[in-house]
Amino acid sequence: MFPLDEELTVLFDRLNERKRAVALVASTQALLRSHGPDDLPTVTAAIQAYQEVLRLHPTNATAIAELD
Length: 68
Hints:
By secondary structure, the chain is mostly helical. It is built from 3 helices and no strands. The chain has helices at 6-35, 40-56, 61-67. It is elongated, with a radius of gyration of 15 Å. 15% of the residues are buried.
């Protein structure tokens, strides 16, 4: 409806990034539940995933807590 509205475009981009971050948190939590925290490759993948979540959504409380 407003293809040239830069502010709206930025808002939609942020919304999409947050959606991706939420989905990534959910899949990472499922991965950790299925393989457990003692599986080194799983933990390594989870760390990378949570870092990506923070890149997409820097204030994501779950990613911050899990990386702590």
